[in-house]
Structures
1.
Amino acid sequence: MQPKEIEAIQRDHIKQKAKERNLILLTQLSIFVVFVGVWEWLARINAINVLIFSYPSKMWELFWAQLLDGRLLPHIGMTVWETVVGFLLGTLLGTLLATLIWWSPFLSRVLDPYLVVLNSMPKVALGPVFIVFLGPGLLSIIAMGCAISVIITTIVIYTSFKEVNQNYVKVVQTLGGNKRQIFRMVILPSTIPAILSTLKVNVGLSWVGVIVGEFLVSKMGLGYLIIYGFQVFNFTLVMVALAIIAVVATLMYQGVALLERRLTSQFK
């Protein structure tokens, strides 16, 4: 096959992939528009209880009203900051703990049953413990966001460490490499995709932890708005807060996915 023919095939493949991505994006947007339109229509004809479910146009009005008068941004900023900190701490601590367990086979055997127990424990049940230990404030909320992701991060990354092809490890050992060099040259590069995939999972877990923490103790944040809206029976406010959480969490997820694509392309 001639080089020009190969280039033509590659161009056709790239165009086909672009068309497929555009079709997927168009379908996703169509589903969203139809969902919002049906929701609005059902509310207008009183087919659903607007007191509970509200409707998009009313949510939009409330969103803009609170955004323009400055009441909404502090809540959004607080929750996003708490989530990012909890997300980073959970991922970092989980990765460090997984590395420590991999480094010491003795420690791995000792901690294995405890990791299983901690993973099966509902993390939100630790909320009262954090509140008593750290106080009813910012630290307990961040601790919730961290705790809900750190154990699953440890387990996933440690499992990835163990599943690295041992032939690569033996090659480094044969060349006289020590354990630190094995980790730096073989284990860590081989598990970059698993670590990045764990980041995407931790986005959702961190949001769950922070929102639950705000339910319990916060006087500011999107979780607080949800509880406040429920208490005053303003379910439009509740739906606005949920919609903002969905949008910001999606943006965080897409940011991590972009980081994953860039890093994995470098390691190919």
2.
Amino acid sequence: MSDVRASSRSDAGPARAASAPEPALPANLRRNAPLVPTDSAASRALAAVIAILTFLAALCAGAAEIAVSSAGQWQSSVAQEVTVQVRPSAGRDIEADVRQAESLARAAPGIAGARIFTKAESERLLEPWLGSGLDLSDLPVPRLIALTLASDRAADLAALRTALTAALPGVASLDDHALWLQRLSTMANTFAGIGIGIVLLVLFATGLAVVFATRGAMAGNREVVEVLHFVGADDDYIAKAFQSRFFRLGLRGGALGAGAALLTCALAGLLARMWRSGPAGEEIEALFGTFQIGWQGYAVIVFIGVVASLVTAAVSRFTVRRFLR
């Protein structure tokens, strides 16, 4: 009987030992936070920096898209017209010369219409440079004929220029606005290049901010990294942990910055439509465009937000691997 009690005690002992809970770790050894926290003050500051830089890059891209779009509209408008200039000459009837130049232009292939500027209208074109209130009746102000090109038929401007020179030598000349078109193209390309350069600089600044933040996180978690190495974690595993955390930070900052840029562009377009109703708005629209971006501009802003998050993840992974070496 005593043997049975002893055996039952010996069997119950291991059972109680197996069911007993394991002792908890001391508070100073427990780590409840992730390896790279995304809700700390430093993480929130990095997300704010990424959001601000993304916002600035998106605004630059939107402004470049507006400039290129406006330049394209100007080019399209200028390319649809050419101008015949008839200069006054001693001993000649300028009105007869203007009518002859008009008839030659209308007979040329590819010319859809011709409009003769009156003497008063030609003088009014000089007011931005000479001012108003001047008596220009004694000055040899050239007369202009605006020719509209046909959209369904190519115009032979070289033949028209030759015909004007032969019929009215030294009096009539044809201006196809090629110089202005070249300048508009150069201006558009310059604005686009400046916008791309600023976007690249902002992304570079984002990468530098991520580099410093990643090195700070690595330095603050050196003991944890050593423990991970001790238990068999390789550098790729640690780099992936940092990369996923910083990608979330970059995605948060990029989304905030891109969203703010989209809201700003939409608000600018709404205000431009409101100002367009007045004469000042018409002048601003004629000079600077409508301050509206199309779906390409909105797509570029969203793309910049995505690129900012990808740059954050890639730079953090590269920095971690360099640090672990």
